[in-house]
Amino acid sequence: MRDLTYREAVREALGEELRRDKSVFLLGEDIAEYSGAYKVTQGLLEEFGRERIRNTNLAESAIAGAALGAALVGTRPVAEIMYIDFSLLALDQIFNQIAKFRYMTGGMVKVPLVIRTQGGGGKAAGLHHSQSLEALYTHIPGLIVVMPSTPYDAKGLLKSSIRDDNPVIFIEHKGLYNESGPVPEEEYMIPLGKAEVKRQGKDITAVAYSKSLLLTLKAAETLEKYGISLEVIDPRTLKPLDQDTILNSVEKTSRLMIVHEACKTGGFGAEIAAIVAEKGIDYLDAPIKRVAALDSPIPFNPRLEDYVLPNENDIIKGAFELTGKEIPAELKLG
Amino acid sequence: MRDLTYREAVREALGEELRRDKSVFLLGEDIAEYSGAYKVTQGLLEEFGRERIRNTNLAESAIAGAALGAALVGTRPVAEIMYIDFSLLALDQIFNQIAKFRYMTGGMVKVPLVIRTQGGGGKAAGLHHSQSLEALYTHIPGLIVVMPSTPYDAKGLLKSSIRDDNPVIFIEHKGLYNESGPVPEEEYMIPLGKAEVKRQGKDITAVAYSKSLLLTLKAAETLEKYGISLEVIDPRTLKPLDQDTILNSVEKTSRLMIVHEACKTGGFGAEIAAIVAEKGIDYLDAPIKRVAALDSPIPFNPRLEDYVLPNENDIIKGAFELTGKEIPAELKLG
Amino acid sequence: MQKIGSEKLKEIFIKMLRIRAFEERAIAEYRKGILPGFIHSSIGQEAIPSSVCAFLRDDDYILTTHRGHGDIIAKGAKFDKMMAELYAKETGYNKGRGGSMHIVAADLNMLGATAIVGAGVPIASGVALGCKMQNLDRVTVCFTGDAATCTGAFHEGVGLAAIWNLPVIFVVENNQYGMSTPVKYYCKLEQLSDRAKAYGIPGVTVDGNDAEAIANVASEAIDRARKDGGPTLIDAITYRYYGHHMGDPGTSYRTKEEIEEWKRHDPIERFQGRLLKAKVITKSEIQEIQASINRELDEAVKFAMESPEPRIEDALNNIYCPSA
Amino acid sequence: MQKIGSEKLKEIFIKMLRIRAFEERAIAEYRKGILPGFIHSSIGQEAIPSSVCAFLRDDDYILTTHRGHGDIIAKGAKFDKMMAELYAKETGYNKGRGGSMHIVAADLNMLGATAIVGAGVPIASGVALGCKMQNLDRVTVCFTGDAATCTGAFHEGVGLAAIWNLPVIFVVENNQYGMSTPVKYYCKLEQLSDRAKAYGIPGVTVDGNDAEAIANVASEAIDRARKDGGPTLIDAITYRYYGHHMGDPGTSYRTKEEIEEWKRHDPIERFQGRLLKAKVITKSEIQEIQASINRELDEAVKFAMESPEPRIEDALNNIYCPSA
Ligand SMILES: Cc1ncc(C[n+]2csc(CCOP(=O)(O)OP(=O)(O)O)c2C)c(N)n1
Ligand SMILES: Cc1ncc(C[n+]2csc(CCOP(=O)(O)OP(=O)(O)O)c2C)c(N)n1
Ligand SMILES: [Mg+2]
Ligand SMILES: [Mg+2]
Fold first, then answer.
1. Structurally, how many domains does chain D consist of?
2. Inside any domain, residue B218
3. Fewest Cβ atoms nearer than 10 Å: which of A29, A48, A91, B212?
4. pLDDT digits (tens, 9 = 90+) for C49-101
5. Does the predicted model carry a pTM greater than 0.95?
6. D237-264: pLDDT as tens digits
7. Domain of B98?
8. What is the H or E stretch that residue B55 is in?
9. Are both A179 and A201 inside the same structural domain?
């Protein structure tokens, strides 16, 4: 199987769906010639033209609102909000209008649209270009929230998102675009709402998504050497959440760690923790552990940013803590 | 001590602070003659005039942004966003600008402002006028989030909020405005960040805030009759949260219930559950229980709305569940 | 009375009568204490939607606001399903989930009613975009209030319509107040239609209590939009007789004199006078129409009252639709 | 050259030189791969902030955007603290927490730099409101980009300034592109200053590469604002020589010819020619000034490089301030 980058995988999904279905189109700021801030839409203007690869005005609420309107009358818009930080400007449209429209009509309409955006830190992009805000979205009934961690998932989930008749918030990570991984040439789809066990293990269930999944898999390798076996679950879709896969794993491992890049307080990890504390508390032999960003705006200074964001070492430390083992000095975790 | 309604208590706090400090002023939509949608600001225009009781244009991001600007140069604005549902229009200003401004400057400025708003359902006000969105705010570092449940707390906390040098989101509940309770004539303040045990008990710790606190206290009375003793804690300030008061209580009762009117998934109850699952799991003798709204937009139809929102019976049922006792048939909880 | 034929004039007039009668009945029901939630009456403003919608095709779209009963009726909504929605019944347009501020009649291409002021504007631009992309020659009309022109959503949505030359018409039902705030306070312009100048689209202010004047302006704008001539902003000046909603007496920020003065320019009376004079309609015809409207309303109320409430078991339906 | 004295002209010119030199140095440092984050260069746009800020008092306020280096320097910011901020050092204006897009120099009444396009506009109105309420006769200048005029925040913020007649001036640094999107695409107006017509405030378009023209327009607007004459929108047309940020070559949406053509209207060269001709300044004076600027920049870079990083222990400071 060939390898693609996460960026290419997203692009390929967009291209395939644009080709397959004439009612699909893209709108967003600077997605045409400029190909978006992270060049995801490169080449699409040339193939599909300006009608279907539409630069908007600089107006996030117009982007989201226009996507809703267009979705109501038979097209399937894929809107891009350049950074999830800017999506705060569109939240009335996304939370009050898009999320509620179908329910409000008693089910008379459907709202088939996707909002693609990207978040996350690690690039010294500063406090308005680095946030992880998925938790805001997961609180709102009516939305589906997808956060892929690999090129394979990104492609398969985006295709499913575009074909789904519900509004999907599709959150990429700027730190993943250059990561590569196997993506089949043949068409495939990944169902929304299904987690995947990315690594089997027996001591600790680690739930992680987006870029944090990669950190967790790396940490798992180190931990393996020290006799701690992580079972790593990628929910992939945060809303609706595949609770069963998580609960089954915790039943097996009796320990739960959650890893995400969003601020800890009120992050999506809290929801996962709460679900397990409600439905699987008897499985647990240890406190639940959240490894997440410190509760801080993202500082510009890269060292501070590193400090604020969760990293491999934090995961390793957390795992030792959960198993009650001492951290070997050679690991130099400080 | 005289009784005041919650509405009057908020109004009195505003009046006293406007009188005490010339740099305090109010801005918002229709807060002057109209006195706001729930008449909270009634009489203030007459006493303080149009300069300090300022009607704005219909523009939530302007209200929040203007409050920030005015706060940066030496005044202490108290902005009103008529419904928390509309605050989604101001979230860039509140989350990206207001919450981060001080941090962004390395501490060179302070942002002394209050945003008053109100939320909650129970009035058949429909899906754009009934939400409980506090969880969005509690996720953002830099904000203080206050949600008072009684007239006494509302007054004392609002005065502290206005005098605090940090941005405070002060969330009232439309279903509480007519509730009355004792409020001293003498001036008093309630510190931000301190929970209050509203009722001593020994079997279950019930954490509840805003209108849910009242429901919980009522449920506690019923439960008392059936031999279940609730210790009811009102965090009052959700961010920063007084974790100690909650953890100490759970240590005593070994059971935790959280009650709020926001949707369950991703609600603030998840955060409380996660904290206890992290720091107090050994105290627990039962699963954590969240009593919250079902994950649904708020329907217009009052019966459906009642069904979707948590009520006394849900709390009572939850308490029986947590204690493993059978629900007496006479309670008719269905 | 030049360009508009008498059939059209009659159609407009009947729409106005229907709106007024419905609104009066809704208020009466509300005052009995039976209707849940809020009612924002559009009495006094009937000429605007009646004239505008008279020039729309069935497959054209409209969007409206919290004060939308009139607009919805003008597009052809049924009294019974509307009244049932006000009663929060399963037989209402939204199955009782939406209520007065959120009525959607998808079968009439009436795409709601948002209660967030200004939010309909970008959505309307999106509807027009969707039509344009599918080469449908449908026009979208977005009704908004005057104060809505202050919102960021208005600016962004009209901005988008302008640059993509979308077939959408923004009709400001300018009742001169946003809640209690007079237009003169929140906008320093002589006329609100000058806001169009920020987008390079045509803007026109018209007497919103003069059905024919609106009809002329609207038919031209609709025509232009249908011929790919792009969006128009219509500012139609009118007045609401009641308060902001039924809980607001409407007199803390408006004088009784001002209200009375406006009632002397009642759009229905004015239009009726002209139609009678021009013999487009007769007094007895009007009486008959009104009687029939009243019968329809009696039935609608009966229908609403007798209709079932939504079932609790269905409370969580339609938050999502089944995945494709 | 009538109204503006030669001292002022010289001041403006020196500001322009300072901005150009700083920006060039920042780019050079960035290209070494030492600076973290993004750099949005304002080279080509120097005349606008230089001329505007020359008419501000020290206690007047400015706000700016992601492309704010020029504006900040024009208000008097120190190279060393700016460069240290670009280097993310503890000695930077924001102690390394903000970076290029977020510089705030509170001591100079320079209140930031938001990286959310348009977000500064309502904040600026608030600053002006705060001044007005305290009877301070201070003026606030809000620099924004051209595409920022599309945002809801711009509309709401200017709207508020207009109705409260606030002492604030919105200066659009119109470099004719929002990222890759040309102004002609996202706005169908002949001139962007016509957006002022939506608010009933004065709007003027000016050659943003002509320092004196800007000076005339700006001094008038500042004067008016200070005398309680309310806000003004100034649209100053200019061009950025580099891409949107240093990672963008800037040529996928602009032709090389277009860029070259604009370089022929370089604001510094033009102004320098005129000043030399009018003998306001001499060649050797300019050389001296440039040499001194370069020394200052050498020192600034040295200062920045030698300055300490923020301490990890301080990472969580200043998220809140101690409660009052
Ligand atoms: C974004 C938003 N802000 C505030 C409100 C509260 N509100 C409801 S209607 C209204 C006034 C609207 O005025 P206008 O647009 O003129 O419409 P009208 O009510 O006069 O028909 C206000 C402030 C709201 N619903 N949405
Ligand atoms: C609200 C928001 N949307 C999008 C962006 C991404 N972005 C950064 S600068 C920019 C273009 C801004 O253009 P303009 O206002 O003309 O300023 P310029 O960069 O030309 O100085 C865009 C789209 C952003 N920072 N904020
Ligand atoms: Mg109005
Ligand atoms: Mg620009």
1. 1
2. yes
3. A48
4. 999 999 999 999 999 999 999 999 999 999 999 999 999 999 999 999 999 99
5. yes
6. 999 999 999 999 999 999 999 999 999 9
7. 2-183
8. strand B53-55
9. no
